[in-house]
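Amino acids appear as letters; backbone shape is given numerically. Here is one record.
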Amino acid sequence: MNTIANALPSQNVAPEPGLTAEERLLDAIFGKHPTEFQLAEMVERGLPAQSVDFLRSEGLTFSEVHDVVLPARTLKHRKEKNQALSVEESDRTLRVARIMTLADQVFGNREKALRWLRRENQRLSRRNPLEMLRSEAGGDLVRQMLYQIDEGIYV
Protein backbone atom coordinates (compact mmCIF):
# COMPACT_ATOMS: atom_id res chain seq x y z
CA MET A 1 0.00 0.00 0.00
CA ASN A 2 1.27 3.45 -0.86
CA THR A 3 1.90 5.20 2.46
CA ILE A 4 1.72 8.59 0.80
CA ALA A 5 -1.86 7.90 -0.26
CA ASN A 6 -2.72 7.50 3.42
CA ALA A 7 -1.45 11.01 4.05
CA LEU A 8 -3.88 12.57 1.58
CA PRO A 9 -6.59 14.54 3.36
CA SER A 10 -10.21 13.69 2.79
CA GLN A 11 -12.07 15.75 0.20
CA ASN A 12 -13.92 17.54 3.03
CA VAL A 13 -10.82 19.37 4.31
CA ALA A 14 -10.91 23.07 3.43
CA PRO A 15 -7.77 24.28 1.64
CA GLU A 16 -5.49 26.61 3.56
CA PRO A 17 -6.01 30.15 2.21
CA GLY A 18 -3.10 31.84 0.48
CA LEU A 19 -1.49 28.68 -0.87
CA THR A 20 -0.99 28.10 -4.58
CA ALA A 21 -2.44 25.08 -6.38
CA GLU A 22 1.02 23.52 -6.46
CA GLU A 23 1.53 24.09 -2.73
CA ARG A 24 -1.90 22.59 -1.93
CA LEU A 25 -1.09 19.53 -4.05
CA LEU A 26 2.28 19.08 -2.36
CA ASP A 27 0.79 19.62 1.09
CA ALA A 28 -1.90 17.04 0.33
CA ILE A 29 0.75 14.50 -0.65
CA PHE A 30 3.62 15.33 1.68
CA GLY A 31 2.09 17.36 4.47
CA LYS A 32 4.92 19.85 3.96
CA HIS A 33 6.80 21.60 1.16
CA PRO A 34 9.39 19.20 -0.28
CA THR A 35 12.63 20.25 -1.89
CA GLU A 36 12.86 20.04 -5.68
CA PHE A 37 15.02 16.91 -5.26
CA GLN A 38 12.44 15.24 -3.01
CA LEU A 39 9.77 16.16 -5.51
CA ALA A 40 11.73 14.64 -8.40
CA GLU A 41 12.17 11.43 -6.40
CA MET A 42 8.45 11.31 -5.63
CA VAL A 43 7.53 11.71 -9.30
CA GLU A 44 9.98 8.91 -10.17
CA ARG A 45 8.31 6.62 -7.59
CA GLY A 46 4.84 7.72 -8.71
CA LEU A 47 2.38 10.05 -7.04
CA PRO A 48 -0.62 8.45 -5.35
CA ALA A 49 -3.56 7.94 -7.71
CA GLN A 50 -5.66 10.14 -5.40
CA SER A 51 -3.50 13.14 -6.33
CA VAL A 52 -5.42 13.32 -9.63
CA ASP A 53 -8.59 14.06 -7.64
CA PHE A 54 -6.86 17.18 -6.37
CA LEU A 55 -6.85 18.68 -9.88
CA ARG A 56 -10.62 18.35 -10.03
CA SER A 57 -10.96 20.02 -6.65
CA GLU A 58 -8.95 22.93 -8.10
CA GLY A 59 -11.55 23.58 -10.81
CA LEU A 60 -10.73 21.26 -13.71
CA THR A 61 -13.54 19.14 -15.10
CA PHE A 62 -13.61 15.35 -15.17
CA SER A 63 -12.86 15.28 -18.91
CA GLU A 64 -10.11 17.90 -18.70
CA VAL A 65 -8.24 15.91 -16.05
CA HIS A 66 -8.67 12.63 -17.87
CA ASP A 67 -7.78 14.06 -21.28
CA VAL A 68 -4.53 15.57 -20.00
CA VAL A 69 -3.31 13.31 -17.18
CA LEU A 70 -4.69 9.80 -17.70
CA PRO A 71 -7.87 8.08 -18.88
CA ALA A 72 -10.62 7.63 -16.28
CA ARG A 73 -10.57 3.87 -16.70
CA THR A 74 -6.84 3.72 -15.97
CA LEU A 75 -7.30 5.89 -12.88
CA LYS A 76 -10.11 3.68 -11.63
CA HIS A 77 -7.93 0.59 -12.14
CA ARG A 78 -5.00 2.20 -10.28
CA LYS A 79 -7.23 3.16 -7.35
CA GLU A 80 -8.81 -0.30 -7.14
CA LYS A 81 -5.37 -1.94 -7.06
CA ASN A 82 -3.94 0.79 -4.82
CA GLN A 83 -1.23 1.56 -7.38
CA ALA A 84 0.71 4.77 -7.77
CA LEU A 85 0.61 6.78 -10.97
CA SER A 86 3.30 6.08 -13.56
CA VAL A 87 6.23 8.48 -13.87
CA GLU A 88 4.58 10.08 -16.91
CA GLU A 89 1.19 10.44 -15.20
CA SER A 90 2.84 11.86 -12.07
CA ASP A 91 4.81 14.30 -14.19
CA ARG A 92 1.65 15.48 -15.98
CA THR A 93 -0.21 15.87 -12.66
CA LEU A 94 2.55 18.07 -11.28
CA ARG A 95 2.86 19.98 -14.58
CA VAL A 96 -0.85 20.84 -14.54
CA ALA A 97 -0.69 21.98 -10.89
CA ARG A 98 2.34 24.17 -11.62
CA ILE A 99 0.79 25.75 -14.72
CA MET A 100 -2.46 26.39 -12.84
CA THR A 101 -0.42 28.12 -10.13
CA LEU A 102 1.40 30.29 -12.66
CA ALA A 103 -1.86 31.13 -14.48
CA ASP A 104 -3.45 32.09 -11.13
CA GLN A 105 -0.54 34.43 -10.44
CA VAL A 106 -0.58 35.98 -13.92
CA PHE A 107 -4.35 36.52 -14.13
CA GLY A 108 -4.95 37.27 -10.46
CA ASN A 109 -7.67 34.70 -9.87
CA ARG A 110 -8.63 31.11 -10.62
CA GLU A 111 -11.67 31.90 -12.79
CA LYS A 112 -9.67 34.03 -15.24
CA ALA A 113 -6.81 31.54 -15.21
CA LEU A 114 -9.10 28.62 -16.08
CA ARG A 115 -10.84 30.67 -18.76
CA TRP A 116 -7.47 31.35 -20.44
CA LEU A 117 -6.34 27.72 -20.10
CA ARG A 118 -9.56 26.54 -21.77
CA ARG A 119 -9.69 29.10 -24.60
CA GLU A 120 -8.45 28.22 -28.08
CA ASN A 121 -5.29 30.09 -28.97
CA GLN A 122 -4.11 30.92 -32.48
CA ARG A 123 -0.49 30.59 -31.42
CA LEU A 124 -1.31 26.97 -30.55
CA SER A 125 -3.01 26.25 -33.90
CA ARG A 126 -6.47 26.75 -32.34
CA ARG A 127 -5.72 24.34 -29.48
CA ASN A 128 -6.19 25.44 -25.90
CA PRO A 129 -3.27 25.74 -23.47
CA LEU A 130 -4.65 23.00 -21.22
CA GLU A 131 -4.40 20.46 -24.06
CA MET A 132 -0.74 21.35 -24.50
CA LEU A 133 0.09 20.16 -20.98
CA ARG A 134 0.16 16.54 -22.11
CA SER A 135 3.85 16.95 -22.96
CA GLU A 136 6.80 18.71 -21.36
CA ALA A 137 7.40 20.64 -24.60
CA GLY A 138 3.77 21.81 -24.60
CA GLY A 139 4.00 22.72 -20.93
CA ASP A 140 7.12 24.79 -21.64
CA LEU A 141 5.31 26.64 -24.42
CA VAL A 142 2.33 27.43 -22.16
CA ARG A 143 4.71 28.55 -19.39
CA GLN A 144 6.48 30.89 -21.84
CA MET A 145 3.15 32.30 -22.98
CA LEU A 146 2.13 33.01 -19.39
CA TYR A 147 5.44 34.77 -18.70
CA GLN A 148 4.92 36.87 -21.83
CA ILE A 149 1.42 37.83 -20.74
CA ASP A 150 2.79 38.75 -17.32
CA GLU A 151 5.40 40.98 -18.96
CA GLY A 152 2.75 42.70 -21.08
CA ILE A 153 3.53 40.96 -24.36
CA TYR A 154 0.36 40.06 -26.26
CA VAL A 155 -0.02 36.32 -26.77
Observations:
- The chain has one domain: 20-150.
